[in-house]
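Write out the 3D structure for:
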Amino acid sequence: MKYRKLGNTGLIVSEVALGAMKFGTNAKLGNLGQEDTTRMVKLALDRGINFIDTADVYSQGESETLLGNTLKGIRDEIVLATKARLPMGKNFNHCGATRYNIMREIEASLRRLQTDHVDLYQIHGWDSNTPLEETLRTMDDLVRQGKVRYIGLSNMLSWQAATALGMQERMGLEKFATAQMYYSLVGRGLEHEFQSFAEYHNIGILVWSVLAGGFLSGKYSRGNPPPAGSRFDVFGQFHPFEKEFGFRVLDALHQVAARHNATPARVATAWTLARPAITSVIIGARTLETLEDNISAVDLQLSEEDVQLLDRVSDPGVPYPKWMVLQLDTVEDRRSKILYPERYAKGGPWKDLRGTQWTG
């Protein structure tokens, strides 16, 4: 196993984290009971994983309960993360990033996890119905009370995260150390703005759904329906991407995987681990064999040819204003080539399109 710092903190975590979404039966995501949960955690720890991520909403608390039972006696050996914000029942006040709900949910999570603190507590998404200051002051209170060591955000736009960070700095509140975000070879939207925002502020990105709900595992193919019981079969396509584009990415994944005698899932995870600003990739599995394979991605070294192929086939394009920012900063401004020649060793981060013939 290899390790990295948790965002802008001094805490050290494994490059891959064990995701606990499949623990529990209430949501039918993994249907893993106590025995399977314990086996999964044991294998992860045996392979050097010291970082486990869950959430209150996973199987409506059952994931935390199973995890708490498993971690008896070894709680202090791991970095434990959970989240709050999504609905926990029909009561509309048992939802959101309000002081009321956050305080309620941290206490419930601590009970289920059978611990007196969590190492990373994350807001599961932006709450447009709650004043941001209320959320941030509450998170700061939890740190000061000793119930939470570090705080993180999840599923936010760049401007939302930047606004929160600016408010935390101005008010002297505990700052977000991490951002748990979706990122995969068929979902590279994070690169448009958020990735550079995270790099600039040294916020560590924790990647969820690196295989796009299992699509990049390689078990799907053109013309064949999803296997019975698979996530795509049960829940449909949650991650938005055009299917033919997805299958082109899969073709490239199979090509690279064959070169390394590896699975497409292992290649997809290795590619993601090598991207900028990534602290850890969260992996989850239904079987020990799948978990073992996903963990082995930390040892897979992709060649430059491999990376170029995967980058090219999955390229989402560059939207405005990013292309204009790159044009001004790396093409128009001559200082960039003088100060950062390594950026231009392979042609630079942006190609000046002026003067080139449009081919339609």
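The chain has a mean pLDDT of 94.
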